[in-house]
User: Fold these one by one.
Assistant:
Number 1:
Amino acid sequence: MGILKCSDTYRSFSGTCTECGHCKGACTSLVAADMTLGDIAKAMLEVERGAESEDDVRLNIAMNPQLVQAVRGCFFCTSCKNTCFAHNDVCDLIYHARVDFQSLGLIEREAWSSVLVDEEWDIFKAYRAIHGIGYVDLTRHIANEHHEASADCDVAFMPGCSLAAYGPELTREIFETIDGMCEKATMLDSCCGSSLKSAGFFDRAENLCQRNIDELVQSGVSQLVCVCPGCANDMAKALSIRGADIEVVSLAAFLSDHGFTAKRQAPEGNLYLSKSCQDRDGTYLRQTCEVLGIDPTTPSIFHGCCGAGGAVSAFQPDRQAQQADSKMSFAPDGSTVITMCPTCTYTYAYRLMSAPRDIQNKHYTELMFESQFDWNLVFYQLGSMWSGEYGAWLASVFA
Ligand code: SF4
Ligand code: SF4
């Protein structure tokens, strides 16, 4: 066995790349690195050639800043994949490269210490604990002081980390709506593990999804309702590996199927739908248009990631802002940007706080439900966590 863990992936990717160069033109990070995806696979193999130890490989990678740029600068947006006639899987390649980077100690701890979402504490759990946000009464499949464990639920609601932490009232309102549309709902307030994959802990992310499936199986549900397309994709893949007979549906499709009508009027002005990069074929975009009752030809923002993907902000802090600006630049002043993934909503809110523009930033559920995100409060609470009475504890937990 060689020094790199994922050489087989690089070999097989390299064998299918025709070196046409189309992928490079689709990506600012690949342009900056002056590499195609095939070049990345070859460079990963090259750093091992002639190396006698991990130290040699580590040094070879560190001496190749273009390779580091291409691997650490990836948002996992798949824009490049859409240009590849060989349908080469960029995520498979770069997730594996990150596994090798992680195991060689080439991803600094500050980049991932607060997002180990399979451990007792991560930034979302800490935020929820410090600010008294919990859902034990809604996680009916888990025994606690409120109830015995239920094995007769029919639908599980997975809000995802950002919605569960930063929109507790909205999360509860959605849950109550789902609960009213089925026999008995339960809440799966765990993470899908995407931040683990970005940090190079691929197996841990897959194990976390399988733990989620253990919970779903135990709950008896036949449907999992996801808000975020990324959670839906990861959970659908994990369910298929497990062979579990549980259908993954988007919240938008679930609400449409059950005849839900919005509790609010659509905002004034033009609406611009910001497609999630995890929504590869546009299914979630179509379903979101349908539940909102808007024309699917409504102007949409398709271009790449919001800036939050791939933990790029830990490697190149400015690129998250640039990416968010680039994506929101499609929406003219006076319009409303509507997101499908709550992490995109968070990312735009964060950017608009430091670079205000005359646009509204709304998750699509905010157009239908009474409860809204309060981003001023969220950012205040996120900032004050580190300086208040829990500051020292947080610093030590995430050191
Ligand atoms: S997935 Fe996106 S960020 Fe990553 S290499 Fe492809 S286009 Fe670039
Ligand atoms: S677009 Fe596909 S085939 Fe062409 S260089 Fe990129 S990975 Fe290789």
Number 2:
Amino acid sequence: MILIDKEHTNKECSLAIVGGGPAGLSAAARAWELGIKDIMIIEREPYLGGILPQCIHSGFGTRIFNEELTGPEYAQRFIDLVKKTKIKIIKNTFALSIDKASKRKIRILTTNKYEGLVNINAKSLVLATGCRERTRGQILIPGNRPAGVFTAGFIQRLVNIEGYLPGKKIVILGSGDIGLIMARRLKLEGCDVQGVFELMPFSTGLKRNIVQCLDDYDIPLYLSHTVTKIEGRGSLSSVIISRVDNKLKPIKGTERKIKCDTLLLSVGLIPENELAKTAGILIDANTQGPEVDENFQTNIDGIFSCGNSLFVNDLVDNVTDDAFLAAEKAFAYMNGKIISRNILVRILPGENIAQIIPQKIYSLGNVSLWVRAKIPLKNAVFEIFTENIRDGFDKKPDNIIENKILFSKKLRFVFPGELIKINIAKDDFKDIADAANGFDIKALLRIK
Ligand SMILES: Cc1cc2nc3c(=O)[nH]c(=O)nc-3n(C[C@H](O)[C@H](O)[C@H](O)COP(=O)(O)OP(=O)(O)OC[C@H]3O[C@@H](n4cnc5c(N)ncnc54)[C@H](O)[C@@H]3O)c2cc1C
């Protein structure tokens, strides 16, 4: 980066954390507990908590606190914890780029309106930058470009923080949890919610959210439907909705016009990693987050990733657990305890699996894998097997049997809206690693 070569003010710390959302706050609290004394949290917003201050519904913290909290309450628990420490919180500050200043030093170039450009030099870094929403441009809906087309998170902020309604007659595209929660929220504010339209033949939202947010409020859910045209000059006046076939292509002759002044898009979240890319961190094409090992360490020594910047999580409790682990491993790294960088196994997503994290494992121990299914499956079985060797990876040993099943676990029901955690005990993982012997392994989900 050109900017980083210039002379800027320098600040030093042991552990830097970019992002003051639940992941960043949890990582900071755990790092402090472990005894790291000079920690800095860098947050671009004027407040801490990440996305949670605008999530005023309940459903947060049922596992970590054994209580059902709202988003702001969950965030406040960690803000209070962090404020009791001497952790430095640098708000209104944007992390622009990352650079490896020396073997054991990571440099983060930041900017804020008071100090301009400042280099923060740290021994270790946790990236907790959250995610961003997919927009109309990314799903290519044809038609005009009137006002009234918004992403779900933007409307959530408008209604819950700014106190404005986007409109009165609402159409929602996408039935993930955010779309469902916003359907109920807008109905409670007196809007006429025409329906939630979902491209897939199944909803990616939790069953409880379909019941509590749609059924209880008589909001219809239309599966295998999408918006095929946006109409209106200046302001949105209507959308054209079409049914889609099993290849997700709109079916001619099924179009119908729905009058509305607001189209709410809840069409997916993408981990925010523009900053990670400046450091040359490898990004997994499936998760859109950094490729990590079992320590949540990226391909760059001393840089860890957690929360929604690593992969999009459904539950904040899991974000907190993973952030604790990232902080523990950053502490271990700073004490010279993470040394092995020879890949034991590399895990690839196979049939019916959209994402699998971590992507590679370095050492023998208990292993936890986060797995996201591509489609809903009843009586599913999760399996790990040896996979054909890839070019450029270790030479295939002679004793490898291809496509041999190394691990299998029965699961009752899996669906894309809920991540599955697969725990593999150390002894079972040793058997997998011995059998794979430096070979790639693949995981799949199939019906029993
Ligand atoms: C609408 C909605 C409803 C949800 N409902 C539930 C629920 O009912 N129950 C539940 O358990 N979970 C729920 N979740 C999920 C939960 O909120 C997330 O998993 C959690 O907020 C992720 O935390 P995070 O810290 O990774 O990301 P975020 O909360 O997004 O925080 C990331 C932070 O990083 C900062 N940042 C990013 N880039 C930079 C940079 N370059 N420099 C400085 N700062 C930066 C951002 O400003 C932000 O503050 C919901 C999420 C949404 C969006």
